[in-house]
Amino acid sequence: MKDYKLLLAGLILLLLIIFIAIFTWLWSSNRKNMDPLPIMSNESESTASAEEDGETVAKSTLHIQAEEKLRAPLDAVISSFQSRYPNVEIMISYVASAALLTLSDNKVADNEPSSFVVDTDIIIADGTLSATRLAPVQEELKIAQDKQNRNKAENGMVEDTIDADSSADEIAAKGETDNTDTRNLVSFSYALKDTKKVDGVILTQNPIALNFRNFLLSSTGQDILSRHDYQNIDGYQNEVSDLFKPNSKGKQATGELTVNVADAISIAK
Question: 128: Cβ–Cβ under 8 A, 6 or more apart, which residues?
Fold first, then answer.
């Protein structure tokens, strides 16, 4: 009987140790930073980690083409972005809406051109960039990519000799990260304006372009845009009262009709 009690006590102790170990592992795992965005949600937090994160990005240049209407909000976003990534130089060209989707072979804003297949890494619009709107840009991108592929093929023997021992990092450093296939253009929404989304699109394989897009979608980027009358991308929110007192627009949209309750009951009888 005594051995049975000792065995039971030992089993309970073992289960308790296992429970504590599992709890400790879960607690430590949940303390890890799970935010995939490249910035802090609160700019008042310590800037030490931001500076360390900025240092991880190699010195590079990002070329942006945007609508003139976006000058004020984008200038504010870029200023905040560069404070986090001091090694990144941003060359932005503001153009009229009609010229937004026109890719130039010249240097962007009379500065150093992009080392990728085209001179513009990102296009940012003050409206929707549908697949139809992007079709001419997609064709220009294909032509530029085909031209680059032909040039590489013509100089293939020379390049093979030079780059035979080059590592992936060395190739990326030279800006030769574009695939031989044309990039498929898919727009992304970064804010709302008058309940309508506004879009951007990444044209090249420049990795810093993805960082900038993520910054636009982050809490800091969204807060900056909201100060310039651009609503949060998740801005479709209804107040509690709206759930019980839908406005006239909501009624029209759903085809809702006002029905007298007494009449409905009499009809049912």
Answer: 187, 196, 197, 198, 199
Cβ contacts of 113 within 8 Å, gap of 6 or more = 63, 106, 107, 119
pLDDT tens per residue, range 173-196 = 444 444 467 789 999 999 998 888
CB-based contact 181:146 (threshold 8 Å): no
Question: Nearest 5°: phi and psi at 188?
Answer: -130, 145
Task: Please state, in angstroms and rounded to a whole number, the distance separating the CA atoms of residues 86 and 245.
Answer: 50
**pLDDT (tens digit, 9 = 90+) per residue, 98-114?**
999 988 654 444 455 56
Q: For residue 13, what are its two tokens? A: 């102790």
Backbone angles phi, psi at 63, to 5 degrees: -110, 125
DSSP string, 77-125: HHHHHHHH-TTEEEEEEEE-GGGTTPPPSS-GGGSPPPSSSSS-SEEE-
Q: 7 is written with which tokens? A: 């065995």
Residues in the chain: 269
Instruction: Kindly report whether the global pTM for this prediction surpasses the value 0.70.
Output: no
For residues 72-93, give the mean pLDDT.
Answer: 95
Helix (H/G/I), strand (E/B), else coil: 67 = strand
Cα–Cα distance between 84 and 53 in angstroms, integer?
A: 8
Which string of b and e fits 31-48 if b means at least 16 CB within 10 Å?
Answer: eeeeeeebbbeeeeeeee
Cα–Cα distance for residue pair 56/73, rounded to 1 Å: 26
